[in-house]
Amino acid sequence: MSENHEIAVEIGGLPILLRTQDGSFRDMLADRYAGFVGSPSRPRFEFDVDLVAPSEPPQSESENDLRVELQNGTWRLQRGDFNAHWNPEAGRGRVRQSPNPYSIDSVLRIVHTLILAKEGGFLLHAASVVRNGRAFLFSGVSGAGKTTISRLAPPDVTLLTDEISYVRRASGVYRACGTPFAGELHRVGENCSAPLGALFFLTKASENRIDSIDPPQAMHLLLRNILFFAEDAELVKMLFGSACDFVENVPVRRLNFTPDSRVWELIQ
Amino acid sequence: MSDRYIARSSAIAARMLGGEMMIMSSVDSTFYTLNEVATVIWQAADGRTPLSEIVSALVSQFEVEPEVALRDAQQFVDDLSPHGILLVSDHPIADSSPRSAETA
Predict the structure, then answer these.
(1) Do residue B26 and residue A214 have CB atoms under 8 angstroms apart?
(2) Domain final residue, candidates A74, A100, A117
């Protein structure tokens, strides 16, 4: 019988155990998620990862489409490069993929979006940092400046992520948590969290300025940047409620910025 | 001409935020923001109140001509009903699940 190799990846304080029979794959995960590896003794969920030989690239776009559906209490996650199922009640799941880090990374992101949706939180296309004990999110589509503003951060700023931000709500307080989901900086965030100070939507401009955004506009921008993949009406309703709550409770602003470090004088 | 009835679908989430009504379809995640007139129509769309009565309410509340209110209401219905988030019927609508009424 083959030996099992385990690793617990802990993001947002939530340990997920990954079990594989391939020691080198486990080592690759340990390297990729360095700083986010927790104790495997108390996982909240467990996944067996079955590694298979890489398949041919998908013949059509539709083969590569992601599907996330709930069937009889079990989530089915399917994309061209992986096939997974996860039963939240049982706390167990299984992933079938080739030995690459990107598929399991996608599965982890999807699982976290499903967990967060029930708890009033979400994953957001945003860089996030901690400064003076408060977290700040910088959101926008690709090219909006998430990596740029992260790169310009002064030394007293702790980077949580330059790509995918993790927003949790606990006891009515929003916190941003570090994630290992890196963007163009290729730098894993710090595994820490802080209460949210503000969410900024980035716009490149000729001067550094913060503008207010009215709630409908804030909702439009927020919903556009939340990561959510499930085809599930109840969860969509929950996510809408979470976005409304967020806009009502967290300052949402537009940050017009020029690509130099003076913009950080506005972020205190 | 017989009256029509409109009802909010149960397959939506809605919230008043910053003085504006926001609606999202839980079927395809499309998102709408309603203006003041549309919000009044939306809130009155209970499946029992005839559209003509809703139009009368618009006339008195916004002091507009009846034909203007009727045009606004019809435009609202025409815009939202194809997406299944507003149900339309020639009869009162008891159940607001998306398949319970003709979605004109």
Answers:
(1) no
(2) A117
